[in-house]
Amino acid sequence: MSYFRMIWTHILDFICPPACPMCRAFLRAPNQICPECFKELDFITRPQCAVCGLPFEFDIWEGSLCGACLRKKPRYDVARACLVYDEASKKLILPFKHGDRMELVPLLVRLLEQTGGDLIRRADAVMPVPLHRLRLMKRKYNQAALLAQKLARGHRKRYLPHTLVRIRHTPIQGHLPPNQRRKNVARAFAVKCPDQIRGKNILLIDDVMTSGATADECARVLKRAGARRVMILTLARVCRG
After folding, report:
1. Average per-residue pLDDT for the chain
2. Backbone angles phi, psi at 59, to 5 degrees
3. 26 pairs with which residues across the strands?
4. Cβ–Cβ contacts within 10 Å for residue 98, how many?
5. What's the burial of 64, exposed, middle or buried (CB within 10 Å: 0-12/13-18/19+)?
6. What range does the domain containing 95 cover?
7. Domain of 170: which CATH number?
8. What is the pTM of this model?
9. What's the confidence (pLDDT) of residue 175?
10. Is residue 25 part of a domain?
């Protein structure tokens, strides 16, 4: 950092002190979470399903699958999420997703790095779950793309923002039961320029995994176009039905 940039940073910190993104308490440094809010967050760690990453209540043998993955294994190879999606993590994610809080990107990417380090190392390319152009016009930005771009740059991975596209505008899925979510996203995605992903390990970035239907459909389309492996990395996931 240059001397003048350092001085400017100190001036900005004096005028607008860094604040916790969850409770707005003042912090000593930017891109942090205050200790009280940090304690509220439920981080997902082992033991967890070897495929979808669902946390288990007690430790069992390595490579174990949850009931859902045993009944029907997802099309993606592995999925990992940083946090349980609950009232605490919503305070961190929703302002970024719907509140234009793009200054949160460095903090959120650091969470992804801490959770998905192994997936990042194995990836040949990074891409976001795409938004349909109509939703993108309404929301103004794709939050998954902001995360994926910074993550790819930081780890010198190829960034493919336009290879996977959403070709069908689908209703918001939050209120739909799991079977309807699968129908909702069926044939909603397509791959442009399949040569970019053929034989590659793809890391797909999104903000929240709910039922996994979107991730599963994206993986199906990517693998059909020639991707070798599809790995999913999200900020949070729903852990209850």
Report:
1. 89
2. -75, 130
3. 19
4. 10
5. middle
6. 41-237
7. 3.40.50
8. 0.90
9. 64
10. no
